[in-house]
Amino acid sequence: MKVEKDRLNQLKRDAIQGFIKYIGMKAVSLSPGRFTTRLKLEKRHLQQDGFAHAGLVAAMADHTAGYASFSLVPADRRILTMEYKISYFRPAGGDYLECQGHVIKAGRQVLFTQADVYAVKGKTKTLVARAMHTMTAVPVEKMPKA
Amino acid sequence: MKVEKDRLNQLKRDAIQGFIKYIGMKAVSLSPGRFTTRLKLEKRHLQQDGFAHAGLVAAMADHTAGYASFSLVPADRRILTMEYKISYFRPAGGDYLECQGHVIKAGRQVLFTQADVYAVKGKTKTLVARAMHTMTAVPVEKMPKA
Amino acid sequence: MKVEKDRLNQLKRDAIQGFIKYIGMKAVSLSPGRFTTRLKLEKRHLQQDGFAHAGLVAAMADHTAGYASFSLVPADRRILTMEYKISYFRPAGGDYLECQGHVIKAGRQVLFTQADVYAVKGKTKTLVARAMHTMTAVPVEKMPKA
Amino acid sequence: MKVEKDRLNQLKRDAIQGFIKYIGMKAVSLSPGRFTTRLKLEKRHLQQDGFAHAGLVAAMADHTAGYASFSLVPADRRILTMEYKISYFRPAGGDYLECQGHVIKAGRQVLFTQADVYAVKGKTKTLVARAMHTMTAVPVEKMPKA
Q1: Which residues on C lie below 8 Å from A109 (Cβ)?
Q2: Backbone phi, then psi, for B145, in 5-degree steps?
Q3: Second label for B46, Cα 20 to 30 Å away, from A63, A109, D74, D116?
């Protein structure tokens, strides 16, 4: 699918707002079906044992996969997460987290995605979590009201 | 399993720190194997369409299930999330979110939990998401270093 | 939603065919959004340690949830499983397995379901697994060809 | 980890028994942390619309990931599935199914695995499903009795 450069740039800006801006995620790169994000780890992100909170890692995976999906649907459709599963291979810490999301299978209404989260400390990059999502693309006029 | 009242009170306080405090979660009640939490919805919690971000809902479910698990393990063990799956039955909005977590099966090293998230608007309470987690109880001395 | 009795009876018969008949599942009862099935455990169902194979337990959960979903959609729609997660609380054995599936949330195109699997030995019934599925209801004319 | 050739051969034989033999799975190749299996599709494997039953596909993914895990644990440990999630990208049909399972992260007691299932028709091989599992390695003497 051909995706306009303007559309990608707009989505990349759009991606960082609300909760995602609040927790400090940054957009790194967005291409059709692929999105990479980063988050500098700070004290506010940690859980009781000093690791990045599992909920933070999951939010990052969810949002990164969500905008990877956005890049493959027409501009009059919105993306909602229907469900996901995330596995934590090890507790996450370090300088920052990087998340790489991609679309495995894009249908008109349903998109399957995967997102890998890496912990980066100095020059070491370690896979800490993998998530698999089912996203739905909803026409704007059918979106429920917030 | 008999759980000391002091231990429950301490866990309930301990539950609200770091990332969880930052996003505004509150502990409502903690009994052995059951934890209830709330979060008043504010602008900082929303995604691009004005709903509570799926990542926020998941963080709430994860943490609530995590401390429900904590309440059933000896004081020298820590809880880490190994994995979970969450399904979103409808987008979440309203005045606040409430999460009810409980332990389905508690083993010595592995605990299976479930967490239901409700959106509350005025007097209406709607189930918006359900998560199933696998938690692990790690002896303090074997915890990885953050 | 009103579901005709004839439709339920037809679905209950329809449920036991192909792979499901081959592995020995039986329909117990089907009401709108709820389906119960059973499977008498035999040698052919076991894995290397003498327990019911995890794949068998999952097939049972998937199919039971699938036909619980069928009971809530118009007769010109077919049900396909988009994804599920299943947790095994303990290895399963005994005289037979019973599975209780129900629809948590039924949309026009997407249905969320849950299925609990019990192992029954004599008079003891033990919860051994819980699954959560996302089903899709596809109009017959849009079904892919087998 | 060095895995003896004899051990791998024995595991490869051991993999095909009970339920797995009954449904017709074959072992193709087993190396440390990787297992490939195949299943020739027959009428007994199908669901109501003529596709391979989702439960069959899941059983294949589960078992393939299970023996990929077996290949990385000491001979006095047994593998049990704690949970998995499987996504179905499209209905599966064709001549046979092939499943490729691998271990993502092997701990002493917990192993995270992934299994991809392909449908093969003539010269076309299509990814139809992906599963992520959490396996546990249990010392023989601690195994529950079947």
Answers
A1: 109
A2: -85, 135
A3: A109
SS3 state at D73: coil
Whether B134 and D134 lie within 8 Å, measured CB to CB: yes
The continuous run of DSSP H or E covering C19 comes out as: helix C18-23
pLDDT digits (tens, 9 = 90+) for A16-33: 999 999 999 999 999 999
CB–CB of C55/D19 below 8 Å?
A: yes
Of D82, D85, D112, nearest to B110 by CB-CB distance is D82
User: How close is the nearest chain D Cα to the Cα of B88, in Å?
Assistant: 16
C114 touches C132 (CB < 8 A): yes
Closest residue, chain D, to B82 (C-alpha): D134
B70, two tokens: 């904590």
Cite the beta strand spans of chain C per DSSP E. Answer: 25-31, 34-40, 77-88, 96-106, 110-121, 124-139
pLDDT digits 0-9 by tens, B72-98? 999 999 999 999 999 999 999 999 999
Distance of CA B73 to the CA centre of its chain: 16
* Chain B contact set for D109 (CB, 8 A): 109
> What tokens were used for A47?
């859980």
Bridge partners of A134, per DSSP, are A83, A112
Helix (H) or strand (E) holding A61: helix A54-70
Rounded to whole angstroms, the Cα distance separating D43 from D52 reads 9
Does B3 have pLDDT greater than 80? no
When scoring C85, C111, C113, C126 by the number of chain B Cβ atoms within 10 A, the one with the most, hence best to mutate, is C85
State the residue for tokens 């077996």. Answer: D70
Q: Count CB neighbours of C79 within 10 A.
A: 23
Q: Is the pTM of this model over 0.90?
A: yes
How far is Cα B5 from Cα B30, in angstroms, rounded to an integer? 10
Answer whether D105 sits within 8 Å of A90, measured CB to CB.
Answer: yes
CB C27 within 8 A of CB C15: yes
**Over the stretch C34-57, which tens digit does the pLDDT of each residue have?**
999 999 999 999 999 999 999 999
Task: Give the separation between CA D16 and CA D26, rounded to whole angstroms.
Answer: 7
Token pair for B69? 């698990």
Give the whole-angstrom CA distance, residue C103 versus residue B34: 24
Q: Which two tokens stand for residue A7?
A: 């559309």
Q: Which chains touch D (3 or more CB pairs under 8 A)?
A: A, B, C
Is B144's CB within 8 Å of A91's CB? yes
CA-based end-to-end distance of chain A: 31
For residue B1, pLDDT beyond 60: no
Give the whole-angstrom CA distance, residue B138 versus residue A88.
15
Give chain B's contact residues with C (Cβ, < 8 Å). 85, 87, 89-90, 104-105, 112, 114, 127, 130, 132, 134
Helix (H/G/I), strand (E/B), else coil: A131: strand
Closest to C83 (Cβ–Cβ): which among A83, A109, A136? A83
In A4-57, beta strands by DSSP E = 25-31, 34-40
Residue of D nearest to B85 (CA): D85
